[in-house]
Amino acid sequence: MKIAVDPTACLHTGICVSLAPHHFTLDHTGTMHLSTDHIPPHQHAQVTAAVHACPTAALSLQQP
Ligand code: SF4
């Protein structure tokens, strides 16, 4: 499972960062970045919750 980001849709709310801080970060300008592409199985639920919580649908999950 991989995370896909549409940066044009991200409004820098930080919701994904608060729900899955190991995978999403905000830099000093408020721009969201993926910390890692690798999602270990025990973190799938946390990342999935963060993706679904994004208010602008900027995040999606891709199966390999
Ligand atoms: S939850 Fe969505 S809009 Fe908010 S920072 Fe994350 S990707 Fe951007």
From TrEMBL:
InterPro entries: Fe-S_cluster_ET. Its cofactor is [3Fe-4S] cluster. Keywords: 3Fe-4S, Electron transport, Iron, Iron-sulfur, Metal-binding, Transport. The keyword Metal-binding applies. Pfam families: Fer4_15. GO terms for molecular function: 3 iron, 4 sulfur cluster binding; metal ion binding. SUPFAM superfamilies: 4Fe-4S ferredoxins (SSF54862). PANTHER family: FERREDOXIN (PTHR36923). This is Ferredoxin. The lineage of its organism: Bacteria, Bacillati, Actinomycetota, Actinomycetes, Mycobacteriales.
